[in-house]
Design a protein that fits this description.
Blueprint: H1 6-20, E1 29-35, E2 40-46
Length: 50
């Protein structure tokens, strides 16, 4: 599996949240799913994290 750059994911989450979120929406989260033959890994990025 590839190494995930959490900083890059958080940048995307923050930019999309700032640009597209409606005032009534909750803050966005980013979810990355990685699957190999032997395992499944879930990575989560929250808005405002650095």
């Amino acid at each position: 599996m590839k190494l995930i750059n959490y900083h890059e994911i958080n940048i995307y989450v923050n930019v999309i949240d700032d640009q597209l979120r409606h005032p009534d929406d909750q803050p966005m989260i980013g979810i990355v799913l990685c699957k190999s033959r032997k395992q499944v890994i879930v990575h989560c990025a929250l808005w405002g994290m650095s």
